[in-house]
Inverse folding.
Protein backbone atom coordinates (compact mmCIF):
# COMPACT_ATOMS: atom_id res chain seq x y z
CA UNK A 1 0.00 0.00 0.00
CA UNK A 2 1.25 3.44 -0.89
CA UNK A 3 0.00 6.86 0.00
CA UNK A 4 0.22 10.10 -1.96
CA UNK A 5 -0.32 13.69 -0.89
CA UNK A 6 -1.34 16.29 -3.45
CA UNK A 7 -0.65 19.93 -2.64
CA UNK A 8 -1.62 22.87 -4.77
CA UNK A 9 -2.48 26.52 -4.62
CA UNK A 10 -6.09 27.23 -5.59
CA UNK A 11 -5.75 30.13 -8.02
CA UNK A 12 -8.99 30.00 -10.02
CA UNK A 13 -12.34 30.64 -8.33
CA UNK A 14 -15.17 28.25 -9.07
CA UNK A 15 -16.64 24.82 -8.40
CA UNK A 16 -14.38 21.92 -9.31
CA UNK A 17 -14.48 18.14 -9.39
CA UNK A 18 -11.63 16.11 -7.98
CA UNK A 19 -11.25 12.39 -8.47
CA UNK A 20 -8.61 9.72 -8.04
CA UNK A 21 -6.40 9.02 -11.03
CA UNK A 22 -5.94 5.29 -10.46
CA UNK A 23 -6.83 3.33 -13.58
CA UNK A 24 -9.42 2.40 -14.62
CA UNK A 25 -10.60 5.91 -13.82
CA UNK A 26 -14.07 5.08 -15.17
CA UNK A 27 -14.57 2.39 -12.52
CA UNK A 28 -13.15 4.50 -9.72
CA UNK A 29 -15.48 7.42 -10.46
CA UNK A 30 -18.42 5.02 -10.88
CA UNK A 31 -17.66 3.75 -7.37
CA UNK A 32 -17.70 7.14 -5.72
CA UNK A 33 -14.04 8.19 -5.71
CA UNK A 34 -14.66 11.90 -6.27
CA UNK A 35 -15.74 15.09 -4.60
CA UNK A 36 -16.26 18.81 -5.08
CA UNK A 37 -13.97 21.73 -4.27
CA UNK A 38 -15.40 25.23 -3.98
CA UNK A 39 -12.82 28.00 -4.42
CA UNK A 40 -13.98 31.45 -3.30
CA UNK A 41 -12.62 34.40 -5.26
CA UNK A 42 -9.57 36.09 -3.70
CA UNK A 43 -10.52 39.32 -5.44
CA UNK A 44 -13.26 41.11 -3.49
CA UNK A 45 -14.67 42.54 -6.73
CA UNK A 46 -15.39 38.99 -7.88
CA UNK A 47 -16.97 37.89 -4.60
CA UNK A 48 -20.51 36.55 -4.89
CA UNK A 49 -23.32 38.30 -3.03
CA UNK A 50 -24.39 36.76 0.30
CA UNK A 51 -26.84 33.92 -0.29
CA UNK A 52 -28.11 30.63 1.05
CA UNK A 53 -25.72 28.16 -0.53
CA UNK A 54 -25.91 24.49 -1.40
CA UNK A 55 -23.41 22.12 -3.01
CA UNK A 56 -24.73 19.30 -5.19
CA UNK A 57 -22.68 16.62 -6.91
CA UNK A 58 -24.52 14.58 -9.54
CA UNK A 59 -23.19 11.10 -10.28
CA UNK A 60 -24.08 7.69 -11.67
CA UNK A 61 -23.84 4.23 -10.17
CA UNK A 62 -23.84 1.05 -12.24
CA UNK A 63 -25.22 -2.40 -11.43
CA UNK A 64 -21.94 -4.01 -10.57
CA UNK A 65 -19.04 -2.08 -9.07
CA UNK A 66 -16.55 -4.14 -11.09
CA UNK A 67 -18.32 -4.45 -14.43
CA UNK A 68 -16.34 -2.08 -16.61
CA UNK A 69 -18.10 -3.38 -19.73
CA UNK A 70 -21.47 -2.25 -18.34
CA UNK A 71 -20.04 1.15 -17.40
CA UNK A 72 -18.73 1.53 -20.96
CA UNK A 73 -21.80 0.35 -22.87
CA UNK A 74 -24.73 0.09 -20.46
CA UNK A 75 -26.94 2.50 -18.60
CA UNK A 76 -26.56 3.51 -14.96
CA UNK A 77 -28.87 1.91 -12.42
CA UNK A 78 -28.90 4.91 -10.11
CA UNK A 79 -28.23 8.62 -10.63
CA UNK A 80 -27.89 10.67 -7.47
CA UNK A 81 -27.30 14.10 -6.01
CA UNK A 82 -24.72 13.79 -3.23
CA UNK A 83 -24.38 10.05 -3.37
CA UNK A 84 -27.85 8.68 -2.66
CA UNK A 85 -30.92 8.35 -4.89
CA UNK A 86 -33.75 10.71 -3.95
CA UNK A 87 -31.75 11.92 -0.93
CA UNK A 88 -33.41 15.33 -0.85
CA UNK A 89 -36.86 14.11 -1.83
CA UNK A 90 -37.58 12.85 1.67
CA UNK A 91 -35.34 15.42 3.34
CA UNK A 92 -35.84 18.59 1.29
CA UNK A 93 -33.33 21.40 1.07
CA UNK A 94 -34.97 24.46 2.62
CA UNK A 95 -34.89 28.16 1.84
CA UNK A 96 -37.07 31.20 2.48
CA UNK A 97 -39.37 32.95 0.01
CA UNK A 98 -37.54 35.68 -1.88
CA UNK A 99 -34.06 35.08 -0.53
CA UNK A 100 -31.10 34.64 -2.85
CA UNK A 101 -30.23 30.94 -3.23
CA UNK A 102 -27.01 29.70 -4.80
CA UNK A 103 -26.28 26.14 -5.92
CA UNK A 104 -22.76 24.97 -6.70
CA UNK A 105 -23.44 22.02 -9.00
CA UNK A 106 -20.67 19.63 -10.00
CA UNK A 107 -21.30 16.73 -12.36
CA UNK A 108 -19.02 13.82 -11.45
CA UNK A 109 -20.41 11.58 -14.17
CA UNK A 110 -18.59 9.39 -15.00
CA UNK A 111 -20.50 9.40 -18.29
CA UNK A 112 -23.72 11.36 -18.53
CA UNK A 113 -24.27 15.07 -19.10
CA UNK A 114 -26.54 16.84 -16.63
CA UNK A 115 -29.43 19.14 -17.59
CA UNK A 116 -29.72 20.88 -14.23
CA UNK A 117 -33.08 22.50 -13.57
CA UNK A 118 -35.36 23.35 -10.66
CA UNK A 119 -39.00 22.87 -11.68
CA UNK A 120 -41.14 25.98 -11.33
CA UNK A 121 -38.18 28.36 -11.32
CA UNK A 122 -35.91 30.22 -13.70
CA UNK A 123 -32.30 30.82 -12.71
CA UNK A 124 -31.64 34.55 -12.33
CA UNK A 125 -27.96 34.11 -13.11
CA UNK A 126 -25.78 31.17 -14.05
CA UNK A 127 -21.98 31.05 -13.98
CA UNK A 128 -20.13 28.55 -16.18
CA UNK A 129 -17.74 26.64 -13.89
CA UNK A 130 -18.59 29.12 -11.12
CA UNK A 131 -16.27 31.76 -12.52
CA UNK A 132 -17.79 35.12 -11.53
CA UNK A 133 -17.38 36.76 -14.95
CA UNK A 134 -18.91 33.85 -16.91
CA UNK A 135 -22.45 35.09 -16.28
CA UNK A 136 -25.63 34.42 -18.23
CA UNK A 137 -29.13 35.45 -17.18
CA UNK A 138 -32.65 34.06 -17.20
CA UNK A 139 -31.82 30.42 -17.85
CA UNK A 140 -34.20 27.52 -17.15
CA UNK A 141 -31.73 24.62 -17.58
CA UNK A 142 -27.93 24.42 -17.80
CA UNK A 143 -25.83 21.75 -19.52
CA UNK A 144 -23.14 20.41 -17.17
CA UNK A 145 -20.66 17.98 -18.72
CA UNK A 146 -19.20 15.16 -16.65
CA UNK A 147 -16.15 16.71 -15.01
CA UNK A 148 -17.73 20.15 -15.24
CA UNK A 149 -19.76 22.54 -13.12
CA UNK A 150 -22.14 25.46 -12.99
CA UNK A 151 -23.08 27.87 -10.22
CA UNK A 152 -26.73 28.93 -10.44
CA UNK A 153 -28.66 31.56 -8.51
CA UNK A 154 -32.38 31.92 -8.03
CA UNK A 155 -35.06 33.48 -5.84
CA UNK A 156 -38.39 31.77 -5.33
CA UNK A 157 -41.13 34.21 -4.32
CA UNK A 158 -43.74 31.73 -3.08
CA UNK A 159 -43.77 28.90 -0.58
CA UNK A 160 -43.97 25.40 -2.02
CA UNK A 161 -42.02 22.31 -3.05
CA UNK A 162 -39.88 22.74 -6.17
CA UNK A 163 -38.29 19.60 -7.66
CA UNK A 164 -34.54 19.71 -8.31
CA UNK A 165 -33.74 17.51 -11.30
CA UNK A 166 -31.56 16.74 -14.21
CA UNK A 167 -34.06 17.36 -16.97
CA UNK A 168 -32.66 14.31 -18.78
CA UNK A 169 -35.59 12.59 -17.16
CA UNK A 170 -34.30 9.02 -17.44
CA UNK A 171 -31.64 10.06 -14.93
CA UNK A 172 -34.07 12.05 -12.77
CA UNK A 173 -36.26 8.92 -12.64
CA UNK A 174 -33.26 6.90 -11.42
CA UNK A 175 -32.71 9.14 -8.43
CA UNK A 176 -31.41 12.55 -9.53
CA UNK A 177 -34.48 14.26 -8.08
CA UNK A 178 -34.70 16.28 -4.89
CA UNK A 179 -36.96 18.94 -3.41
CA UNK A 180 -36.22 22.58 -2.77
CA UNK A 181 -38.76 23.47 -0.09
CA UNK A 182 -39.53 27.16 0.14
CA UNK A 183 -40.87 27.98 3.58
CA UNK A 184 -40.81 30.96 5.91
CA UNK A 185 -39.59 28.58 8.61
CA UNK A 186 -36.35 27.61 6.84
CA UNK A 187 -33.50 27.67 9.36
CA UNK A 188 -30.40 29.71 8.79
CA UNK A 189 -27.46 27.56 7.90
CA UNK A 190 -23.98 27.76 6.45
CA UNK A 191 -22.95 26.15 3.16
CA UNK A 192 -25.01 22.98 3.00
CA UNK A 193 -25.51 20.10 3.06
CA UNK B 1 -61.10 13.63 -12.93
CA UNK B 2 -59.72 16.89 -11.64
CA UNK B 3 -58.66 20.02 -13.44
CA UNK B 4 -55.97 22.56 -12.49
CA UNK B 5 -55.35 26.05 -13.73
CA UNK B 6 -51.86 27.52 -13.56
CA UNK B 7 -51.52 31.29 -13.63
CA UNK B 8 -48.28 33.19 -13.65
CA UNK B 9 -46.73 36.42 -14.75
CA UNK B 10 -44.10 35.98 -17.46
CA UNK B 11 -41.20 38.10 -16.19
CA UNK B 12 -38.18 36.66 -17.98
CA UNK B 13 -37.89 36.92 -21.77
CA UNK B 14 -36.88 33.82 -23.68
CA UNK B 15 -38.00 30.46 -25.02
CA UNK B 16 -39.30 28.05 -22.41
CA UNK B 17 -40.54 24.50 -22.19
CA UNK B 18 -43.68 23.67 -20.25
CA UNK B 19 -44.79 20.15 -19.42
CA UNK B 20 -47.24 18.44 -17.13
CA UNK B 21 -46.02 17.46 -13.69
CA UNK B 22 -48.02 14.27 -13.31
CA UNK B 23 -45.76 11.37 -12.39
CA UNK B 24 -44.10 9.60 -14.05
CA UNK B 25 -42.97 12.81 -15.74
CA UNK B 26 -40.64 10.81 -17.99
CA UNK B 27 -43.57 8.94 -19.55
CA UNK B 28 -45.74 12.03 -19.86
CA UNK B 29 -43.07 13.98 -21.72
CA UNK B 30 -42.30 10.94 -23.89
CA UNK B 31 -45.98 10.91 -24.86
CA UNK B 32 -46.11 14.53 -25.96
CA UNK B 33 -47.34 16.37 -22.87
CA UNK B 34 -45.27 19.50 -23.40
CA UNK B 35 -45.04 22.69 -25.41
CA UNK B 36 -43.07 25.89 -25.90
CA UNK B 37 -43.70 29.37 -24.53
CA UNK B 38 -42.05 32.37 -26.16
CA UNK B 39 -41.82 35.43 -23.92
CA UNK B 40 -41.00 38.67 -25.73
CA UNK B 41 -38.93 41.21 -23.82
CA UNK B 42 -40.97 43.94 -22.08
CA UNK B 43 -37.94 46.22 -22.26
CA UNK B 44 -37.71 47.78 -25.73
CA UNK B 45 -33.91 47.89 -25.45
CA UNK B 46 -33.92 44.10 -25.26
CA UNK B 47 -36.31 43.62 -28.16
CA UNK B 48 -35.01 41.46 -30.98
CA UNK B 49 -34.68 42.92 -34.45
CA UNK B 50 -37.49 42.16 -36.91
CA UNK B 51 -36.98 38.78 -38.54
CA UNK B 52 -38.72 35.79 -40.06
CA UNK B 53 -39.33 33.62 -37.02
CA UNK B 54 -39.86 29.90 -36.48
CA UNK B 55 -40.47 27.84 -33.35
CA UNK B 56 -39.10 24.30 -33.22
CA UNK B 57 -39.55 21.81 -30.39
CA UNK B 58 -37.30 18.75 -30.54
CA UNK B 59 -38.52 15.63 -28.77
CA UNK B 60 -38.20 11.85 -28.60
CA UNK B 61 -40.80 9.10 -28.88
CA UNK B 62 -40.23 5.56 -27.62
CA UNK B 63 -41.51 2.24 -28.95
CA UNK B 64 -44.24 1.76 -26.42
CA UNK B 65 -46.04 4.68 -24.80
CA UNK B 66 -46.22 2.80 -21.49
CA UNK B 67 -42.79 1.15 -21.34
CA UNK B 68 -41.01 3.23 -18.71
CA UNK B 69 -38.14 0.73 -18.60
CA UNK B 70 -37.41 1.36 -22.30
CA UNK B 71 -37.58 5.13 -21.78
CA UNK B 72 -35.08 4.80 -18.93
CA UNK B 73 -32.60 2.43 -20.55
CA UNK B 74 -33.39 2.18 -24.25
CA UNK B 75 -33.11 4.41 -27.27
CA UNK B 76 -35.91 6.45 -28.82
CA UNK B 77 -37.57 5.14 -31.95
CA UNK B 78 -38.38 8.57 -33.33
CA UNK B 79 -36.91 12.02 -32.77
CA UNK B 80 -38.92 14.88 -34.19
CA UNK B 81 -39.17 18.62 -34.66
CA UNK B 82 -42.70 19.72 -33.77
CA UNK B 83 -44.09 16.29 -33.14
CA UNK B 84 -43.63 14.38 -36.38
CA UNK B 85 -40.56 12.73 -37.92
CA UNK B 86 -39.25 14.52 -41.02
CA UNK B 87 -42.19 16.97 -40.86
CA UNK B 88 -40.30 19.76 -42.58
CA UNK B 89 -38.44 17.53 -45.00
CA UNK B 90 -41.46 17.17 -47.25
CA UNK B 91 -42.88 20.56 -46.31
CA UNK B 92 -39.83 22.82 -45.98
CA UNK B 93 -39.73 25.96 -43.91
CA UNK B 94 -39.20 28.84 -46.32
CA UNK B 95 -37.28 32.09 -46.14
CA UNK B 96 -35.76 34.58 -48.56
CA UNK B 97 -32.09 34.97 -49.47
CA UNK B 98 -30.36 37.42 -47.16
CA UNK B 99 -33.21 38.08 -44.77
CA UNK B 100 -32.75 37.70 -41.02
CA UNK B 101 -34.15 34.37 -39.81
CA UNK B 102 -34.70 33.55 -36.15
CA UNK B 103 -35.37 30.09 -34.70
CA UNK B 104 -36.70 29.63 -31.18
CA UNK B 105 -35.56 26.08 -30.41
CA UNK B 106 -36.80 24.23 -27.34
CA UNK B 107 -35.61 20.72 -26.52
CA UNK B 108 -38.41 18.82 -24.76
CA UNK B 109 -36.35 15.64 -24.48
CA UNK B 110 -37.27 13.80 -22.32
CA UNK B 111 -33.71 12.45 -22.35
CA UNK B 112 -31.40 13.44 -25.17
CA UNK B 113 -29.37 16.60 -25.65
CA UNK B 114 -29.77 18.39 -28.96
CA UNK B 115 -26.90 19.58 -31.16
CA UNK B 116 -28.91 22.06 -33.20
CA UNK B 117 -27.41 22.96 -36.56
CA UNK B 118 -28.49 24.01 -40.03
CA UNK B 119 -26.23 22.41 -42.64
CA UNK B 120 -24.47 24.90 -44.89
CA UNK B 121 -24.92 27.82 -42.52
CA UNK B 122 -23.27 29.43 -39.51
CA UNK B 123 -25.47 31.12 -36.92
CA UNK B 124 -24.74 34.84 -36.81
CA UNK B 125 -25.85 35.11 -33.21
CA UNK B 126 -27.09 32.62 -30.64
CA UNK B 127 -28.85 33.45 -27.36
CA UNK B 128 -28.76 30.95 -24.49
CA UNK B 129 -32.38 30.37 -23.42
CA UNK B 130 -33.39 33.25 -25.69
CA UNK B 131 -32.31 35.88 -23.18
CA UNK B 132 -31.26 38.91 -25.26
CA UNK B 133 -28.03 39.57 -23.34
CA UNK B 134 -26.78 35.97 -23.47
CA UNK B 135 -25.31 36.45 -26.93
CA UNK B 136 -22.55 34.53 -28.68
CA UNK B 137 -21.51 34.94 -32.30
CA UNK B 138 -20.44 32.81 -35.24
CA UNK B 139 -21.58 29.42 -33.95
CA UNK B 140 -22.16 26.37 -36.14
CA UNK B 141 -23.92 24.14 -33.57
CA UNK B 142 -25.49 24.79 -30.15
CA UNK B 143 -25.95 22.34 -27.28
CA UNK B 144 -29.53 22.37 -26.01
CA UNK B 145 -30.22 20.27 -22.93
CA UNK B 146 -33.58 18.57 -22.47
CA UNK B 147 -35.69 21.19 -20.74
CA UNK B 148 -33.59 23.96 -22.25
CA UNK B 149 -33.58 26.28 -25.23
CA UNK B 150 -31.61 28.48 -27.59
CA UNK B 151 -32.61 31.25 -29.93
CA UNK B 152 -30.45 31.32 -33.07
CA UNK B 153 -30.25 33.84 -35.90
CA UNK B 154 -28.90 33.43 -39.38
CA UNK B 155 -28.98 34.86 -42.89
CA UNK B 156 -28.54 32.63 -45.92
CA UNK B 157 -27.30 34.52 -48.97
CA UNK B 158 -28.08 31.93 -51.65
CA UNK B 159 -31.15 30.00 -52.69
CA UNK B 160 -31.14 26.29 -51.90
CA UNK B 161 -32.23 23.58 -49.49
CA UNK B 162 -30.44 23.63 -46.12
CA UNK B 163 -31.03 20.66 -43.78
CA UNK B 164 -32.09 21.48 -40.21
CA UNK B 165 -30.77 18.79 -37.87
CA UNK B 166 -29.60 17.78 -34.50
CA UNK B 167 -26.00 17.00 -35.35
CA UNK B 168 -26.24 13.99 -33.02
CA UNK B 169 -26.90 12.14 -36.22
CA UNK B 170 -28.51 9.06 -34.71
CA UNK B 171 -31.39 11.35 -33.71
CA UNK B 172 -31.38 13.22 -37.04
CA UNK B 173 -31.65 9.84 -38.77
CA UNK B 174 -34.68 9.01 -36.62
CA UNK B 175 -36.58 12.06 -37.79
CA UNK B 176 -35.03 15.23 -36.38
CA UNK B 177 -34.26 16.50 -39.87
CA UNK B 178 -36.06 19.21 -41.79
CA UNK B 179 -35.34 21.56 -44.65
CA UNK B 180 -34.90 25.30 -44.62
CA UNK B 181 -35.68 26.27 -48.19
CA UNK B 182 -34.20 29.59 -49.25
CA UNK B 183 -36.15 30.99 -52.16
CA UNK B 184 -37.03 34.42 -53.48
CA UNK B 185 -40.65 33.24 -53.57
CA UNK B 186 -40.96 32.63 -49.82
CA UNK B 187 -44.24 34.09 -48.60
CA UNK B 188 -44.41 36.56 -45.78
CA UNK B 189 -45.74 34.98 -42.64
CA UNK B 190 -46.02 35.60 -38.93
CA UNK B 191 -44.29 33.45 -36.29
CA UNK B 192 -44.37 29.95 -37.77
CA UNK B 193 -45.25 27.16 -38.09
CA UNK C 1 -18.88 8.24 -60.52
CA UNK C 2 -19.37 11.97 -60.19
CA UNK C 3 -17.24 14.63 -58.63
CA UNK C 4 -18.27 17.87 -56.95
CA UNK C 5 -16.25 20.92 -56.02
CA UNK C 6 -17.38 23.16 -53.22
CA UNK C 7 -16.14 26.72 -53.16
CA UNK C 8 -16.86 29.24 -50.49
CA UNK C 9 -15.45 32.33 -48.85
CA UNK C 10 -14.53 31.79 -45.19
CA UNK C 11 -16.10 34.80 -43.49
CA UNK C 12 -16.46 33.68 -39.86
CA UNK C 13 -13.37 32.94 -37.77
CA UNK C 14 -13.33 29.77 -35.71
CA UNK C 15 -12.96 26.00 -35.77
CA UNK C 16 -15.40 24.17 -38.00
CA UNK C 17 -16.32 20.63 -38.94
CA UNK C 18 -16.84 19.65 -42.54
CA UNK C 19 -18.32 16.36 -43.65
CA UNK C 20 -19.74 14.80 -46.77
CA UNK C 21 -23.45 15.15 -47.33
CA UNK C 22 -24.05 11.82 -49.02
CA UNK C 23 -26.84 9.92 -47.28
CA UNK C 24 -26.83 8.20 -44.92
CA UNK C 25 -24.77 10.98 -43.35
CA UNK C 26 -24.64 9.06 -40.05
CA UNK C 27 -22.76 6.19 -41.69
CA UNK C 28 -20.44 8.45 -43.65
CA UNK C 29 -19.38 10.38 -40.56
CA UNK C 30 -19.00 7.13 -38.60
CA UNK C 31 -16.60 5.96 -41.31
CA UNK C 32 -14.36 8.98 -41.15
CA UNK C 33 -15.70 11.26 -43.89
CA UNK C 34 -15.04 14.53 -42.06
CA UNK C 35 -12.35 16.99 -41.11
CA UNK C 36 -11.64 20.30 -39.40
CA UNK C 37 -11.26 23.76 -40.89
CA UNK C 38 -9.56 26.50 -38.88
CA UNK C 39 -10.40 30.02 -40.01
CA UNK C 40 -8.11 32.72 -38.66
CA UNK C 41 -9.68 36.12 -37.99
CA UNK C 42 -9.25 38.65 -40.81
CA UNK C 43 -9.60 41.45 -38.28
CA UNK C 44 -6.28 41.98 -36.48
CA UNK C 45 -8.13 43.06 -33.34
CA UNK C 46 -9.64 39.59 -33.15
CA UNK C 47 -6.38 37.75 -33.76
CA UNK C 48 -5.39 35.27 -31.08
CA UNK C 49 -2.14 35.75 -29.20
CA UNK C 50 0.84 33.69 -30.37
CA UNK C 51 0.73 30.20 -28.86
CA UNK C 52 1.68 26.60 -29.40
CA UNK C 53 -1.33 25.27 -31.25
CA UNK C 54 -2.88 21.85 -31.71
CA UNK C 55 -5.93 20.66 -33.62
CA UNK C 56 -7.92 17.73 -32.23
CA UNK C 57 -10.95 16.09 -33.83
CA UNK C 58 -12.91 13.74 -31.58
CA UNK C 59 -14.96 11.04 -33.28
CA UNK C 60 -16.60 7.65 -32.82
CA UNK C 61 -16.21 4.40 -34.70
CA UNK C 62 -18.77 1.58 -34.58
CA UNK C 63 -18.27 -2.17 -34.80
CA UNK C 64 -19.36 -2.56 -38.37
CA UNK C 65 -18.86 0.17 -40.97
CA UNK C 66 -22.19 -0.70 -42.59
CA UNK C 67 -24.39 -1.39 -39.57
CA UNK C 68 -26.59 1.70 -39.47
CA UNK C 69 -28.84 0.08 -36.85
CA UNK C 70 -25.88 -0.18 -34.44
CA UNK C 71 -24.88 3.43 -35.14
CA UNK C 72 -28.45 4.52 -34.34
CA UNK C 73 -29.04 2.46 -31.22
CA UNK C 74 -25.76 1.00 -30.05
CA UNK C 75 -22.58 2.29 -28.48
CA UNK C 76 -19.34 3.11 -30.32
CA UNK C 77 -16.52 0.61 -30.10
CA UNK C 78 -13.78 3.23 -30.38
CA UNK C 79 -13.65 6.95 -29.64
CA UNK C 80 -10.58 8.75 -30.90
CA UNK C 81 -8.74 12.03 -31.16
CA UNK C 82 -7.53 12.46 -34.74
CA UNK C 83 -8.68 9.11 -36.00
CA UNK C 84 -6.89 6.54 -33.86
CA UNK C 85 -7.57 5.33 -30.32
CA UNK C 86 -4.93 6.42 -27.79
CA UNK C 87 -2.89 8.03 -30.60
CA UNK C 88 -1.28 10.60 -28.32
CA UNK C 89 -0.92 8.31 -25.34
CA UNK C 90 2.15 6.63 -26.83
CA UNK C 91 3.20 9.71 -28.80
CA UNK C 92 2.39 12.61 -26.48
CA UNK C 93 1.78 16.14 -27.65
CA UNK C 94 4.56 18.28 -26.20
CA UNK C 95 4.74 21.81 -24.86
CA UNK C 96 6.98 23.81 -22.55
CA UNK C 97 6.26 24.79 -18.95
CA UNK C 98 4.46 28.13 -18.76
CA UNK C 99 3.98 28.74 -22.47
CA UNK C 100 0.56 29.53 -23.88
CA UNK C 101 -1.04 26.43 -25.44
CA UNK C 102 -4.10 26.56 -27.66
CA UNK C 103 -6.25 23.59 -28.70
CA UNK C 104 -8.74 23.83 -31.56
CA UNK C 105 -11.15 21.01 -30.68
CA UNK C 106 -13.80 19.84 -33.12
CA UNK C 107 -16.25 17.10 -32.24
CA UNK C 108 -17.16 15.15 -35.38
CA UNK C 109 -19.43 12.74 -33.50
CA UNK C 110 -21.49 11.43 -35.23
CA UNK C 111 -23.49 11.00 -32.03
CA UNK C 112 -21.81 11.69 -28.71
CA UNK C 113 -21.19 14.98 -26.95
CA UNK C 114 -17.64 15.64 -25.79
CA UNK C 115 -16.65 16.81 -22.31
CA UNK C 116 -13.20 18.07 -23.24
CA UNK C 117 -10.77 18.33 -20.34
CA UNK C 118 -7.05 18.09 -19.65
CA UNK C 119 -6.45 16.41 -16.29
CA UNK C 120 -4.48 18.51 -13.83
CA UNK C 121 -5.18 21.79 -15.61
CA UNK C 122 -7.81 24.51 -15.80
CA UNK C 123 -8.39 26.29 -19.11
CA UNK C 124 -7.46 29.96 -18.78
CA UNK C 125 -9.85 30.94 -21.55
CA UNK C 126 -12.32 29.05 -23.71
CA UNK C 127 -13.95 30.30 -26.92
CA UNK C 128 -17.25 28.80 -28.06
CA UNK C 129 -16.78 27.71 -31.69
CA UNK C 130 -13.42 29.50 -31.65
CA UNK C 131 -15.01 32.91 -32.16
CA UNK C 132 -12.68 35.40 -30.45
CA UNK C 133 -15.44 37.32 -28.64
CA UNK C 134 -17.16 34.23 -27.21
CA UNK C 135 -14.78 34.05 -24.28
CA UNK C 136 -15.24 32.44 -20.86
CA UNK C 137 -12.55 32.06 -18.22
CA UNK C 138 -11.37 29.53 -15.68
CA UNK C 139 -13.15 26.46 -17.06
CA UNK C 140 -12.18 22.87 -16.26
CA UNK C 141 -14.33 21.09 -18.88
CA UNK C 142 -16.24 22.27 -21.96
CA UNK C 143 -19.28 20.68 -23.60
CA UNK C 144 -18.74 20.21 -27.34
CA UNK C 145 -21.75 18.96 -29.30
CA UNK C 146 -21.27 16.70 -32.31
CA UNK C 147 -20.82 19.12 -35.19
CA UNK C 148 -19.50 21.77 -32.81
CA UNK C 149 -16.20 23.11 -31.52
CA UNK C 150 -14.34 24.97 -28.83
CA UNK C 151 -10.97 26.66 -28.74
CA UNK C 152 -9.31 26.36 -25.33
CA UNK C 153 -6.15 27.96 -23.95
CA UNK C 154 -4.01 26.94 -21.03
CA UNK C 155 -0.59 27.26 -19.49
CA UNK C 156 0.91 24.45 -17.45
CA UNK C 157 3.58 25.67 -15.02
CA UNK C 158 5.19 22.32 -14.16
CA UNK C 159 6.71 19.49 -16.16
CA UNK C 160 4.72 16.27 -16.27
CA UNK C 161 2.22 14.15 -18.21
CA UNK C 162 -1.31 15.56 -18.32
CA UNK C 163 -4.05 13.32 -19.76
CA UNK C 164 -6.23 14.83 -22.50
CA UNK C 165 -9.70 13.28 -22.31
CA UNK C 166 -13.35 13.57 -22.88
CA UNK C 167 -14.52 13.46 -19.27
CA UNK C 168 -17.42 11.26 -20.41
CA UNK C 169 -15.14 8.48 -19.26
CA UNK C 170 -16.79 5.65 -21.17
CA UNK C 171 -15.54 7.38 -24.33
CA UNK C 172 -12.14 8.19 -22.83
CA UNK C 173 -11.79 4.50 -21.96
CA UNK C 174 -12.53 3.59 -25.59
CA UNK C 175 -9.66 5.67 -26.90
CA UNK C 176 -10.35 9.38 -26.46
CA UNK C 177 -7.35 9.76 -24.18
CA UNK C 178 -4.01 11.33 -25.01
CA UNK C 179 -1.12 12.88 -23.14
CA UNK C 180 0.01 16.49 -23.05
CA UNK C 181 3.65 16.21 -22.04
CA UNK C 182 5.05 19.34 -20.49
CA UNK C 183 8.82 19.37 -20.86
CA UNK C 184 11.53 22.00 -21.22
CA UNK C 185 12.77 20.00 -24.23
CA UNK C 186 9.59 20.41 -26.29
CA UNK C 187 10.54 21.31 -29.85
CA UNK C 188 9.17 24.37 -31.58
CA UNK C 189 6.60 23.47 -34.16
CA UNK C 190 3.88 25.00 -36.28
CA UNK C 191 0.18 24.13 -35.93
CA UNK C 192 0.18 20.45 -35.01
CA UNK C 193 -0.20 17.60 -35.46
Amino acid sequence: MKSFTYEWEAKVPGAFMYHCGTPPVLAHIANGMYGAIIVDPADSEQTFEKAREFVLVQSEFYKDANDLEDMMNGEPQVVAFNGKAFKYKDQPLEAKPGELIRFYVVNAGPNNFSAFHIVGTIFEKVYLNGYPENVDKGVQTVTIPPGGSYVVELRVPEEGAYPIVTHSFKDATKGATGILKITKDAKDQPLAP
About this structure: The mean pLDDT of chain A is 95.
